[in-house]
Amino acid sequence: MCGITGWLSYDQNLEHQREVLQKMTETMALRGPDAHGLWIDGPAAVGHCRLSVIDLEGGRQPMVEKLDSQKDVAVITYSGEVYNFKELREELKAEGYHFNTSSDTEVVLKAYVAWGEDFVYKLNGMFAFAIWDVRTQEMILIRDRLGIKPLYYYRTHDGVIFGSEPKAILANPLVPRRVTAQGLRGILQMVRVPGYAVFAGMREVMPGEIVRINRQGIVNRHYWRLEARKHEDNLEDTIKNTRALLDDILARQIIADVPLCSLLSGGLDSSIITSLASKKLLESGKGNINSFSVDFIDHGAEFVSDDIRGTRDAPFVKDLAEHVHTNHRDVVLDSRELAGPVLRTKVIHAMDMAIVNGDMYPSLYCLFEEVKRHSTVALSGEGADEIFGGYKWFHDEDAVSGKGYPWMNLSSRKFFEGKSLLKRDLLEKLDLENFIKKDYERALSEVPILPGESVENHRMRQIVYLHVTRFLCILLDRKDRMSMAVGLEVRVPFLDHRLVEYVYNIPWDMKTFDGREKSILRAAGRDLLPNSIVERVKCPYPSTQDPAYEIELRAALAKIMEDEKAPVRPLLDDKAVKETLAREVGVSSLPYDRIAMDLVVYLNSWLVDYNVTLDLDEREN
Ligand SMILES: Nc1ncnc2c1ncn2[C@@H]1O[C@H](COP(=O)(O)OP(=O)(O)OP(=O)(O)O)[C@@H](O)[C@H]1O
Ligand SMILES: NC(=O)CC[C@H](N)C(=O)O
User: Which residues are recorded as binding L-glutamine (predicted)?
Assistant: First the structure.
C-alpha cells in the first residue's frame, strides 16, 4: 500500500512551501518504500510514496491526466487496489480513452475524468485517494466502503491538509499536537466513533465517504452504507452464492506483479482464504502459495486456555499447510522483545497513538517484518467474524440482549478494559460510560430497517452493524498500520462489498442454521478444508502468555514510577500501580491482566515521543 498526502491552501502558492510538503511526504516513506513524488500547482499540492504492486514501472504517482497531452485536467495521489480495474479499463477504452500504462492508478484517474465523482460506485476494492480537479479547482478525498485503507484530514482557514496517517498532517507546522478529552476517550475504548481522529481538529474520511473541498468550504457525502434488503435465496442457494462470490473475489485478489502469500491461523477464515487462493494460483500456473503463521517461544508447553482462546493455532496451521501443500513458515517470537522499548517505539510511530491490547500490535509488526522478506502482498481472513457472526458474544444471550456494545457485555470485556491504573477523577472527567452510551444510541439509530423483519433478526442485524462500523475499523487500522510500517500490503477478501452486502442480509436464523458460529461460511468452504479445521471453534489472533512479557512490562512501569516527570504520571492512580507492581510475577501473565500496564506504558511513550499536549478541559465537537 502506498502513503498519500497533500495540502490545499487557496490563499497561497504552495511552491513556496515545497520543503514542508516534502517533509509531509517523507513521513509516508515506510508505507511506500519504492518511489516518491510531489506535484505542486499554485494552491494545490499532492505527495505520494509508492509500494509498487501493479505495473511496477508505469504506475508512478502523483499521476496527471492531460487534455490532448497538454493541459492538466486532474491529478491523483492514490493508495490501494481496485480489483476490477481491468474491466473498467476496457469500458473506458470503448469510450475512446487511451492508456499509457497498465496500472490501476491510471484507470481510477481516467474513470474520474470520464464519469465524474459517481465513478466511485463502479470501484471494487480497498482504496483511499485524493484527486485535484484542475478544471473546477476542487480537491476530492475518497475512501473505500469498509474503511480498509486510511485517510485523515485537517481543515485550515483556506483549505485542507490530508494524509494516509496523522503523521503526514502533523508534519505541517500549522497543525498542533494537541489531544483533548475526546481524543483520549478514543484511545481508551474498544469502540471507534466514526470520523474521529485522536488529534484535535483532525478527522478521518469515513468509510464510504467522499469529502469535497472547494473555495466555499467542505462538503461530506456518503456514497455507501449498509442497506437492509430482503434475502430471497433458500439455504442451499445462499451457501452456493457465498461460495461463488468467494471464488470470484479470490480470483481477483491474487493478482499482483509482486510476490503474494497468506497469513494463516489454522482457523476457518484464513484457511478458506489460503485454500481458495492456492487453487486459483495453481490454476494460473503460479505454483503453491506461501503461508505464514505467528507463534511464541514455549507457547506449546505452557499454553493455558482462557475465555476466548481455547486452542493454540500451531497444530491446525500444520493441518492446513499439509492439506493444501503451502510453502509454510512459522514465525516464532520472543515474548520479552515484544514488551521491549524498541518495538514499542515502532508500534507507536506506526499508529501515531497509544494502544490498548498490548502484545498483539508488536507481534503483528514482527510477523509482517518477516513476511516482507519474502512477499509484498499478503491475504488475511479479517472481517469474516463481523459479517458471518464468529465472535463468542454473537452467540451469548446476555451479550445480545444487553444494552450496549455486545463485546463489552460479557466477561470477555476484561480483554478490552485497560483503565484500572488511571486516576478516578480522570475517569470521572472523561465520563466514558456516557460517551459510549451516546454513541451506542447513535449507532442504533443508523441501523437500516427491513419492514416485517422479526425482532430477533433485527437485533442481530443491529449487532452486525455495530461490529462493522465500531469494531472492525479498529482491527483494520491495526492491520493497515502494522503491515504498512514494513511496506507490506494486506488484502482482506471477506470485505469485498458485494460479499458484505449479501451476507449482511442473510437472516440470523439462516446464518446459524446448524447452531454454530459462521455456519454459512463453514458450509461454503467445507470441501476446501481438513476436518480438524471444519470442527475447530473460533480462536482469535494469539497473545503471548509467557511471564517474560510481564517481567519486561513491569520493569517499564517501575521506571515510570521512578520518574516524577514522566508525562503519564498525573493520570495515574499511584496506589493501584504500586499494588500491581507488588503482585507476584506470573499472576498477571494472561493478556487481560496485563492490559492496564500495557496501556500506561504505551501512553507514556506516546506522550513523550509525540510531544503531545493534553488539553483535557477543552471541549471538541
Ligand atoms: N497465528 C496466526 N498467524 C498468522 N496469521 C494469523 C494468526 N492468527 C490470525 N491471523 C490472521 O489474522 C486474521 C484475523 O485474525 P482473527 O484473530 O480475527 O482470526 P479469525 O478471524 O478467527 O480468523 P481465522 O478463522 O482465520 O483464525 C486471520 O484470518 C489471519 O489471516
Ligand atoms: N501500494 C499501493 O497502494 C499500490 C497502489 C497501486 N495499486 C500500485 O500498484 O501502484
Answer: 104
Total domain count, the chain: 2
Pair (324, 218) in one structural domain: no
**Model confidence pLDDT, tens digit, residues 46-98:** 999 999 999 999 999 999 999 887 899 999 999 999 999 999 999 999 999 99
Q: What is the ipTM of this complex?
A: 0.96
Burial (CB count within 10 angstroms: exposed 0-12, middle 13-18, buried 19+), residue 98: exposed
- Confirm if 507 and 457 have CB atoms less than 8 A apart: yes
The 10s digit of each residue's pLDDT in 89-135 is 999 999 999 999 999 999 999 999 999 999 999 999 999 999 999 99
Q: Which of 579, 557, 530 has its CA nearest to residue 268?
A: 530
**Region class of 108: left (phi > 0), else alpha (psi between -120 and 50), else beta:** alpha
- Residues 422, 305 share a domain: yes
* Rounded CA separation 619/254 (Å): 47
32 is in an annotated binding site: no
| Whether residue 329 sits in one domain with residue 362 | yes
Q: Could you list the active site residues?
A: 2
pLDDT in the model for residue 617: 85
Pick from 278, 295, 297: which is nearest to 286 by CA? Answer: 278
Is 380 assigned to a binding site? yes
566 domain residue, yes or no: no
Ligand 2: lining residues by beta carbon, under 6 Å: 1-2, 50-54, 59, 79-81, 104-105, 489
The grid coordinates of residue 2 equal: 502506498
Radius of gyration of the chain from its Cα atoms, rounded to whole angstroms: 24
Residues 313 and 452 grouped into a single domain: yes
Residues with CB under 6 A from ligand 1: 263-265, 267-270, 292-294, 313, 380-382, 384-385, 390, 538, 540-542
Extract the C-alpha cell encoding 130. Answer: 485524493
Angstrom CA distances, 370 to 149, 367, 563, stand at 22, 5, 35
Residue 370 β-bridge partners: none
Rounded distance from Cα 610 to ligand 2 centre (Å): 29
Our measurement of the distance from residue 614's CA atom to the centroid of its chain's CA atoms, rounded to an integer in Å, reads 26
69 annotated as belonging to a binding site for a ligand:
no
Which pLDDT score, from 0 to 100, does residue 28 have? 98
Q: What's the domain range around 151?
A: 3-222
Task: Report yes or no on 583 lying in a domain.
Answer: no
